[in-house]
Amino acid sequence: MPRQISYRWRLRELMAARGMFTVAELMPHLTERGITLSSSQVHRLVSGTPERLSLPVLATLCDILDCTPTDLIATSAQNLPARRAAGEEAPINLAARRPTRVRLTPEG
């Protein structure tokens, strides 16, 4: 059965829990650990959900926030309904396909 995997980026929540509410408060912590990102890159990291993230940046964020990658990235998975295979036919409901008979009455 196919599964749909999703995730939620929790950087902003973890920053707030540690008293950091702006990008400017996070930037010095990144710089002192050797991560050089522009303020716009850090803003996108904080305000959005990254599609790609380097492991050094992830490890640094975990060090700054004293957390694990599991704390930063909440994942979930759910089963998807099975799809019909190509060429596989669903049962045909003949009653739905059969036309209704017309009744003719004489005029007059």
TrEMBL record:
Q: Which Pfam families match?
A: HTH_26
Domain (HTH cro/C1-type): give its ranges: 10-76
Give any GO molecular function from the UniProt entry. Answer: DNA binding
Superkingdom of the source species? Bacteria
Q: Under which name does UniProt file this protein?
A: HTH cro/C1-type domain-containing protein
Species, as recorded: Streptomyces minutiscleroticus
